[in-house]
From TrEMBL:
HAMAP family: GcvH (MF_00272)
Protein name, UniProt field: Glycine cleavage system H protein
Oligomer and partners: The glycine cleavage system is composed of four proteins: P, T, L and H.
TM stretches of this protein: none
Cellular compartments per GO CC: cytosol; glycine cleavage complex
Similarity section: Belongs to the GcvH family.
Known role: The glycine cleavage system catalyzes the degradation of glycine. The H protein shuttles the methylamine group of glycine from the P protein to the T protein.
Residues the record lists as N6-lipoyllysine modifications: K66
Cofactor annotation remark: Binds 1 lipoyl cofactor covalently.
């Protein structure tokens, strides 16, 4: 299994979102598996800062040449920032899915991280999908 499937230090959902906690902020994006399944990403719609999000709520949508999919938040918190460069360069998610965050949350519920998959668990999950 390629190391691009999951990175240590991140938490994962079965819907292929990732969350990485840096201090008191959580960065959220999609996995390599998700961007690969979507194909060339052409548009990403994200919430405005200040929006309160609960775990498993929709964070917006991501559109590719193949499909449009909802993005879901792995954990609860308040949107503090969205990645503004995605408006003009959404395909950066295809190029570097683990380095291209979409949303930053503050006031996060770190207790919810225990319900997410570790890198090893996510790799195992994805290996059963192939």
């Amino acid at each position: 299994m390629a190391d691009t499937q999951a990175k240590d230090g991140y938490f994962y959902t079965e819907k292929h979102e990732w969350v990485k906690v840096e201090g008191d902020v959580a960065l959220i994006g999609i996995t390599d598996f998700a961007q690969n399944a979507l194909g060339d990403i052409v548009f990403i719609d994200l919430p405005k800062p200040g929006k309160q999000i609960k775990a498993k709520d929709s964070l917006g949508t991501i559109e590719s040449v193949k499909a449009a999919e909802d993005l879901y938040s792995p954990i609860s918190g308040e949107v503090v920032e969205t990645n503004g460069s995605l408006g003009s360069n959404p395909q950066s998610v295809n190029a570097e899915p683990f380095d291209t965050w979409m949303v930053k949350l503050k006031n996060i519920q770190t207790s919810e991280l225990s319900g997410l998959l570790s890198a090893a668990q996510y790799k195992e999950y994805v290996s059963k999908l192939d």
